[in-house]
Amino acid sequence: MVTANRANLARRAVQCYLQQTYPNKELVIIDDGQEDYAPILADVPAGELRYIKLDPAPGAVLGTLRNRSLEEATG
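Below the sequence we write its predicted structure tokens.
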């Protein structure tokens, strides 16, 4: 998941993730915004979470950020 300053959408995405029943899952988040997502991510088991915080980059291409999330995925 790629996000930047969208805590409400991130909260919904994490809730959906936590409701999944498939046992082999991971949540990869690429964040190039300024909001604090720690309270939103607190319920995600550490072994299932890959959270990458990037410095905000004006003009960052969404496709590049999505590709980064695929590179970070381990499953």
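The mean pLDDT is 93.
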